[in-house]
Amino acid sequence: MMASRTFIRRSVGVALVIVALVAQAFAGFFAQELIAEAAILAIFALSLDLLATCGLISFGHAGLLGVGCYVFAGLTVLMGGSANVAFPIAIVAGAVVAFMVGLFAVRTTGAFFIMVTLAAAEMLFSWGYRSPMFGGANGMGGVPRLNLTAIGIDLNDPATFALTVIVLCIVIWLLLELVVSSPFGRTLAAIRQNPSRVAALGGRVFFYRLAAFTASGAIAALAGALKVQHINFISPDLVSWFVSGDVLIAVVIGGVGTLVGGPLGAALLILLKELLSSTFGHWYLFLGIVFACVALLMPKGIVGNLLDFYERRITRVAASRREPTGDAA
Amino acid sequence: MFLDPQFFAEQVLNSLQFSMLLFLLAIGLSVVFGLMDYLNLSHGTIYMFAAYVAFSLTHLGGSFWIALLLAPLAAAAVGVLLYFVLLKRAEKGGHLTQVLLTVGVIYMGTDLIRIAYGDLPKGVPQPEALNGAVVLFGIPYPAYRVFIIGLGLAVMVALYFALERTRLGALVRAGVDDRATAETLGIDIGKVFALVFGIGTYLAGVAGVVAAPVFGVYPGMDASIIILVLIVVVVGGLGSLRGVIVGSLLIGFADTFGKILLPQFAMMMIYLVMALVLIFRPSGLLPARRFSAPG
């Protein structure tokens, strides 16, 4: 049954990739910006969902995104460094910061982990808000994009940038699919289901959680470095708890712990916000209604409830095969 | 700067006043969280709603005291209605579903307020009887703020006796301590919870009314305070009155003194306090029970 869950998950992922690529191929100028925004949020959502694999829910993921934003912007704009060098450094910085925060944070779980991660992120936010170097609350412009002209790619073209971000998102998704099905990933899933049992079997829960948090931080920082490149701008608003809330909501809408759910939720959230804000004046009212409906009708998220639906059907079919005459199911 | 005792005394009073507001908001959230493990982010929306009701009442010529009497009742009515119509359905859904649902409620609430009242901040006049100043510790201090401190202390004492000395209090403590056992003994925790939810939203309403003259009334006032309230709850430990008292004092003082001592890092102070508390006491300072969060 496990295999079929994985199969359905990956099918959703492939379908989403096809939709994204087709949309990108036919999109106009403005739609390219939306697609790039959605793809960056999708990468960010993947990093949050990796953490959810071991049962930890962060409400401060914007902090790790922010590390990528500030390191990338600092190295390029303030220190005049090359974007191509700054990009990997930003990712490593995200991993390092996540490791250091994780040393304390992953000792807690549940609501307490939510609050500790929130605290860490809000500390970065309040620093950024007051930081004169980065323009404080007003932010700072002039963040350059990666320079890939050597291989014939011009990232200042919106369509090329959108496509590049989509490809990056696909690569990260595939990597995470490998991670999740590896022994490491299976251990993370076991920790989510029953941490004390894993500990009793000799599994080092703390180190696995720390590793997941560190990897998650690297991916979040990558998303952050892409975010500031996309908008050519950095401001503390990128680190506020609303951003952490947005990505959390994207993952919950798509389905926690399903990997493809995050990107699906991210795409839907961006699309929904765009549609609602261009149609209604008071569009947050409708966004709220949609959130409430998803929470009540699909509490496990779109992909999560889809998986449950198929699982029930498979169980029913299996049961009817065992007892062909009865209606035991 | 701190050699000046007058300045120091004034800041202590400011901290106390802010702590009392945090306390009024946090107690409902903490007990709901402790009793039902329900993460209700829309608690702040009730606070905002009460503040707007108070604005309407005073705007229509009612006195502040009428607003203080009626607005919290309206808040409790809306809170309980919200609970039975929407929130109850996510009781077994886990924290994430509750976050999604209650963030949805926050969005809806904020926009409904915007539709009804517009985007601009509104003011609620403080009661005329409290316009003057009171001399406390040798310094003149606004009477209205002394009233907030007194009200907070009175609610603390009242809740202490309600929890420790009444039958309902015993039921609540039993439910927080071990829900399954309490239910096995025939206690209808669902009913207790609805009642507690009503009292909690009533107190959030009280907080909204008394905060209105100090901070003003504006859409989004809920989102700006709910994070602080959550921090109070987590620092204090879930479900305990003493925890909420200690938590709100700690955060109230950290916020006020952080702004004076380290204006650059004012917000950081609060989060630093919380991070330190949770590193050394992962369940908060005074939790109602040794809470082992599901992993």
Describe the structure.
The complex is a heterodimer of chains A (329) and B (295). By secondary structure, chain A is mostly helical. Chain A has 13 helices and two strands; from the N terminus they run H-H-H-H-H-E-H-H-H-H-E-H-H-H-H. With 295 residues, chain B is an all-alpha fold. Chain B has one domain. Chain B has helices at residues 5-36, 43-59, 64-85, 94-117, 143-165, 167-177, 179-184, 189-215, 221-236, 241-261, 266-280, and strands at 133-136, 139-142. Chain B has a two-stranded antiparallel ribbon with strand order 1-2. In chain B, helix 1 runs antiparallel to helix 8, helix 1 runs antiparallel to helix 10 (241-261) and helix 2 (43-59) packs across helix 9. The interface between A and B is large, with 49 and 48 residues.
Pair with the biggest interface = A-B, 49 and 48 residues
Oligomer: heterodimer
Report how far apart the termini of chain B are.
47 Å
Structural class of chain B: mainly alpha
Number of helices of chain B: 11
The proportion of residues in beta strands of chain A is: under 5%
Strand arrangement in the largest pleated sheet of chain A: 1-2
Order of H and E elements of chain A: HHHHHEHHHHEHHHH
N-to-C span of chain A: 17 Å
- Kindly state the number of beta strands of chain B: 2
Question: Which sequence of strands runs across the widest sheet of chain B?
Answer: 1-2
CATH topology of chain A: ABC transporter involved in vitamin B12 uptake, BtuC
pLDDT < 50 stretches of chain A = none
Number of domains of chain B: 1
Biggest sheet of chain A: strands, sense, closure? 2 strands, antiparallel
Q: Summarize model confidence as the mean pLDDT of chain B.
A: 87
